[in-house]
Amino acid sequence: MENEICSTAPGTEFSPSGSLLQEIQQMTHQNISRCYQCKKCSAGCSVNFVMDLKVNEVVRAIQLGDRERLLAANSYWVCTACKTCKNRCPNDIDSSAIMDALKAIAIKENRVKKENKICHFHNSFLTAVKLLGRTHELGMVGLYKHKTKTYTDDLEMGLEMFKRGKFKILPERIRGTKQIKKIFEMAKEKDA
User: Fold this and answer.
1) H-type helices in 4-116, by residue range?
2) N or C of the chain: less Cβ packing under 10 Å?
């Protein structure tokens, strides 16, 4: 006779989506299965108060194969990649690498919400670096404001920063912009 304590109700068996778990483990070289939910990653996370899924919940959702819940969350966009989670983890799991992998999956599957301002910020920053070799704050902010359609938000602060010389009108050029563009091309080829 089957032990009732160990049996599960029909339809509630633990069946993780091996493909999601394997995909993220392959991308990150992290053994996510080693996580036993001690929650030290979430306890040390400086931005967990704005995450809809805490770091340990993201890891658990991956273990369970809950792709839809993960890609609908904002947690991986909010992560600052400070690596506190990795430093606190008794199993040395780098959750920030997992968050980066989730960003890549969301972008690849075209699952980024239009209202996701963090993604627009990343793209604006990278566009400036790709074109100029470094960031030009005024151009980057202009591109970001255009993408997010938030033209007048932060206007007072922007004007104050401009008055104090924090925004240079013309970007500074650096040597080696061809090499930087080549790095972006290599990353794009590797991604394809």
Assistant:
1) 18-28, 40-44, 55-64, 67-72, 75-78, 84-88, 95-108
2) N
Q: How many CB atoms lie under 10 A from the CB of residue 146?
A: 12
Of 92 and 9, the structure prediction assigns the larger pLDDT to: 92
Burial 166-191 (b: 16+ CB within 10 A, else e): ebeeebeeeeeeeebeeeeeeeeeee
Sorted by where each begins, the domain ranges of the chain are 18-109, 117-191
Tokens coding 94: 């780098």
The first and second tokens of residue 167, run together, are 């925004």
Q: Count of CB atoms within 10 A of residue 51's CB? A: 20
Residue at token pair 């809950």 = 66
pLDDT tens sequence across 64-121: 999 999 999 999 999 999 999 999 999 999 999 999 999 999 988 988 877 788 888 8
- Residue 30 · residue 97 · CB < 8 Å: yes
CB of 124 closer than 8 Å to CB of 147: yes
